[in-house]
């Protein structure tokens, strides 16, 4: 159905209910002549007379009554739905879809959701766990989470975590067999546990930085995983050095199950940011979630 047809049908309904072109024109905010032209256009399109007009009265014909009986509940239903959509702008309700990495989902998103959702039962959240970068507009996500804030100009970025650090770790038994590396070049002498990137399929080059000097090291070893948990497990088993987020191994470092090396080459970097299109009109639910996630440290 064309937009013009909907306009014509609505105009007919108002005229039939008001039984007056004068009152209907005032209600619709148009002129009587324009309204008369709209009704004639509708009648010509349908090929039937819908209204009988006298100097004192306007009334639906039999065909008009049948059409009105069909239109009235449909238009009332549309009106009710529009009203409910208007309420959603004020009431925290609706579904929010976010694409995120597993680490961000566990360490940042889940703690906020665990606090927020019990208070707002009409808010629904769907997390899509994906280590690659997604096109949130094309894939119909409301927002995405990524490290740093270097985003496209049409995106808004909200910091949702503090700065973060990576850690190169190995077990005490592994480091008893080999001397700890002192510089990034020493990693060539070590068995390192690689991370296979799901997005590109390549192996992740370890990104290290010290005193403003940045290096990317391609490491080698017996093992490669596309899962950080397995990297940590292999490192604890003494099978090599792993390069992971610091908080993944905080407890293992504190207990001595793992030992950190090249700590001075693991500089802090900008943490997680929630990003979404700047042209988006945030719903009450989305605004509430952004506020709950916003980092205030």
From TrEMBL:
<dbReference type="Pfam" id="PF03466">
    <property type="entry name" value="LysR_substrate"/>
</dbReference>
<dbReference type="InterPro" id="IPR036390">
    <property type="entry name" value="WH_DNA-bd_sf"/>
</dbReference>
<dbReference type="GO" id="GO:0043565">
    <property type="term" value="F:sequence-specific DNA binding"/>
</dbReference>
<comment type="similarity">
    <text>Belongs to the LysR transcriptional regulatory family.</text>
</comment>
<keyword id="KW-0805">Transcription regulation</keyword>
<keyword id="KW-0804">Transcription</keyword>
<dbReference type="GO" id="GO:0006351">
    <property type="term" value="P:DNA-templated transcription"/>
</dbReference>
<feature type="domain" description="HTH lysR-type">
    <location>
        <begin position="4"/>
        <end position="61"/>
    </location>
</feature>
<comment type="function">
    <text>Transcriptional regulator of the ttuABCDE tartrate utilization operon.</text>
</comment>
<dbReference type="InterPro" id="IPR000847">
    <property type="entry name" value="LysR_HTH_N"/>
</dbReference>
<dbReference type="InterPro" id="IPR005119">
    <property type="entry name" value="LysR_subst-bd"/>
</dbReference>
<dbReference type="GO" id="GO:0003700">
    <property type="term" value="F:DNA-binding transcription factor activity"/>
</dbReference>
<keyword id="KW-0238">DNA-binding</keyword>
<dbReference type="Pfam" id="PF00126">
    <property type="entry name" value="HTH_1"/>
</dbReference>
<protein>
    <recommendedName>
        <fullName>HTH-type transcriptional regulator TtuA</fullName>
    </recommendedName>
</protein>
<dbReference type="InterPro" id="IPR036388">
    <property type="entry name" value="WH-like_DNA-bd_sf"/>
</dbReference>
<dbReference type="InterPro" id="IPR058163">
    <property type="entry name" value="LysR-type_TF_proteobact-type"/>
</dbReference>
């Amino acid at each position: 159905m064309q937009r013009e047809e909907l306009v014509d049908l609505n105009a007919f309904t108002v005229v039939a209910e008001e039984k007056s072109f004068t009152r209907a024109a005032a209600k619709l905010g148009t002129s009587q002549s324009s309204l008369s032209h709209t009704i004639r256009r509708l009648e010509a399109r349908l090929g039937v007379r819908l209204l009988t007009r006298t100097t004192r009265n306007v009334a639906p014909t039999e065909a008009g009554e049948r059409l009105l009986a069909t239109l009235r509940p449909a238009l009332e239903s549309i009106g009710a739905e529009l009203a409910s959509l208007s309420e959603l702008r004020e009431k925290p309700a609706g579904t929010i879809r976010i694409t995120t990495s597993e680490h961000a989902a566990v360490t940042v998103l889940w703690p906020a959701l665990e606090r927020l959702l019990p208070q707002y039962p009409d808010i629904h959240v769907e997390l899509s766990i994906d280590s690659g970068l997604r096109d949130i507009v094309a894939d119909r996500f409301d927002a995405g989470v990524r490290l740093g804030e270097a985003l496209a100009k049409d995106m808004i970025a909200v910091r949702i975590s503090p700065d973060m650090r990576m850690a190169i770790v190995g077990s005490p038994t592994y480091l008893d067999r080999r001397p700890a590396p002192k510089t990034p070049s020493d990693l060539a002498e070590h068995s390192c546990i690689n991370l296979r990137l799901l997005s590109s399929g390549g192996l992740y080059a370890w990104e290290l930085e010290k005193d403003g000097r940045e290096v990317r090291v391609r490491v080698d070893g017996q093992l490669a995983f596309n899962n950080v948990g397995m990297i940590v497990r292999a490192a604890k088993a003494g099978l090599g050095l792993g390069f992971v987020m610091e908080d993944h191994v905080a407890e293992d470092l504190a207990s001595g199950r793992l030992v950190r090396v090249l700590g001075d080459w693991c500089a802090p970097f900008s943490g997680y940011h929630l990003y979404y299109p700047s042209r988006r009109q945030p719903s009450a639910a989305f605004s509430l979630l952004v506020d709950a996630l916003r980092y205030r440290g």
